[in-house]
Amino acid sequence: MTLSSKRSLLKLAGWSTLAATAALVGCGKKEEAAAPAPQAEASAAASTPAAKPEPLKIAFAYVGPVGDGGWTFAHDNARKALQAHFGDRIVTSFVEKVPEGADAERVFRDMVSQGNKLIFGTTFGYMEPMLKVAADNPDVKFEHATGYKRAPNMNTYDSRTYEGAYMAGVVAGAMTKTNTLGVVGSIPIPEVIRNIDSFTLGAQSSNPKIKVRVVWVNDWFNPPKETEAAQSLINGGADVLFQNTDSSAVLQTAAKNKKYAFGWDSDMSAYAPDAHLASAVINWAPYYIKTTQDVLDGTWKGNQASWWGVKEGAIDLVSISDKVPAATKTKVDEVKAGLKDGSFSIWKGPIVSNTGKEELKKDEVADDKFLGGINFYVKGVEGKVPSGK
After folding, report:
1. Which CATH number goes with the domain that contains 145?
2. Are residues 217 and 259 located together in one domain of the fold?
3. What is the pTM of this model?
4. Could you give the C-alpha distances from 106 to 96, 98, 99, 133, 148, in angstroms and in order?
5. How confident is the model at residue 101 (pLDDT cuts 50, 70, 90)?
6. Please, which pLDDT band fits residue 20 given cuts at 50, 70 and 90?
């Protein structure tokens, strides 16, 4: 091979080497250009919406059936309003006809085991069982209706039902012909005694001549007993009946006897339109919505007591009959407006018990502590307050 041929081969080899090197370099650049792909995947992952938080599970324990037309019916209507308000942010459930006592404790523990983080107990007799379960489950929030014992994870709430009772009394005093009013009482605790007294005070504001008779059934929901008590009152001369029990039995008994009565806790006008004068109703929805919002926001606090009335939209007198005089309806509206803006107080002295004891001096206004411990009948109510169940 000649020298020039060798040089040509070396030259060709050199070009081949350069070409191979260039090819390798080129490949390296392509790999570098492809490197951002994982970042693109990361960006795509970052733009994926975060998983929705689990809905807050809320449970309600009811002392009566949801179809009682009164107390439990009002609570369950509020539960439905609560669910509609928050949609899929919450899940609500309930257990009805839960007896007060040991059975209530079992139900509360079962609610906790099912993952409920907010539990409402809707009757006075649930207080001790709920307090016990709350102590064992500090991560669960408990709300007890009408009680007075609280804990770091347990509140109490109530409605000023006595305001509705007073407005019903205003109507009753105007509608009675016999000047005798009858009340079917449930259980003789301050809440119920306060309602009977307030009803009487309202009736006296329309008719100072009235007298009030009470028959106790020692139960919240017992239609047969309520019927018997209502009939007894009618037989004793009462022509307008009031109640602090949970069914529509009193109203229906009045209708059968062509007398008048009121709905209680819920609008009962449909049960006996001819006998129905008005319904003193409770709207629990505002409280349930506020409490749930506090839990969702992380602002809920324990050891709190709430007592809402006309002012907060929790109490009203509705479906007033056309039989009620216009002047009486106007008076009810004035009372309602006064309760709402604070210019009117139902429990303002002088107020005297039916034993003659002055309970509130002239112009003295009862505070919540006084109202929470009422254990006497006001003047105008016959008989003695029972000592207990």
Report:
1. 3.40.50.2300
2. yes
3. 0.85
4. 13, 10, 10, 9, 21
5. confident
6. very low
